[in-house]
Design goal:
Blueprint (H helix, E strand, L loop, with lengths): L1 H21 L4 E15 L1 H4 L3 E11 L4 E12 L11 E3 L5 E3 L9 E19 L8 E19 L19 E15 L6 E15 L14 E21 L2 E4 L1
Antiparallel strand pairs: 1-2, 1-10, 2-3, 3-6, 4-5, 6-7, 7-8, 8-9, 9-10, 10-11
């Protein structure tokens, strides 16, 4: 009896291992990721390098095609456009700063903020080996892209940018975008190491949606060609279907 039970469990283990190694499986998975990005196009005139963090919900079909919904938040400190020139005072040495309501240099932080959301289709191209669930990964998507110059008044002492007044300085721009990703996705057979790493690129047609820009004393309604490209690393949390009615979480 004990011998039969032992053989039974050995057969189950061998069968599941064979499915994991030799079968291309259909399953959903989640991904958390981060990127180091550089702007190009019109965006490079406004911002420098930035970081991005986000997540995605994906479904992998048995033929290794994928569909995903991907959202990201990006941020940086390198703002090239001076939107506060009209609020600054200048010293004889050439230094400049914004004065708060009490006549002191303000603690004002100017940063980059933005986010994007894309719906993507893609495929993992099997390149050999026992596991058919890993390989070169390509994605193409369409979505929404938004960015602005973020003004943070740490002490809340600058009347000129309080409330809705800040909208005259932040140059909020948004519009549709195209997304591409090319990398390598590794889905392990032992269920513990699952990741993707590669190069991503966004291309967006955006437009300033603020009615008036205080820095230039004009209306800015030009179409912008904004882009980001970067190196992306993602950690994957899959749910494999191993047998009817049976799942395991990584």
């Amino acid at each position: 009896m004990k011998k039969c039970v032992f053989i039974f469990f050995v057969l189950i283990k061998v069968t599941f291992a064979q499915m994991t190694y030799d079968s291309s499986l259909a399953f959903p998975f989640f991904q958390i990721h981060g990127s180091f990005q550089l702007p190009y196009g019109d965006l490079s005139q406004r911002f420098g390098s930035n970081m991005s963090v986000g997540g995605a919900a994906l479904y992998k079909f048995q033929n290794n095609f994928l569909i995903s919904l991907d959202g990201n938040y990006f941020f940086g400190k390198n703002v090239k456009e001076d939107v506060l020139s009209s609020l600054k005072v200048y010293t004889e040495s050439g230094e400049s700063f914004v004065i708060d309501n009490e006549g002191y240099p303000a603690d004002l932080r100017v940063t980059e903020r933005g986010w994007n959301l894309t719906l993507n289709v893609g495929k993992i191209f099997y390149i050999g080996g026992k596991n058919k669930n890993r390989g070169i990964h390509y994605q193409l998507g369409l979505g929404y892209f938004q960015h602005k110059i973020n003004l943070y008044d740490a002490q809340q002492k600058i009347a000129a940018i309080k409330g809705d007044r800040v909208k005259g300085y932040d140059r909020l721009s948004l519009g549709p975008c195209v997304y591409q990703y090319l990398g390598y996705t590794y889905l392990s057979s032992n269920r513990f190491v699952n990741f993707t790493i590669g190069i991503e690129m966004y291309y967006a047609i955006t437009q300033n949606v603020r009615y008036y820009d205080y820095a230039t004393a004009s209306v800015d309604n030009k179409k912008r060609k904004d882009g980001l490209w970067g190196i992306k690393f993602g950690w994957i949390l899959p749910v494999y279907r191993r047998a009817d009615g049976m799942f395991f979480y990584d």
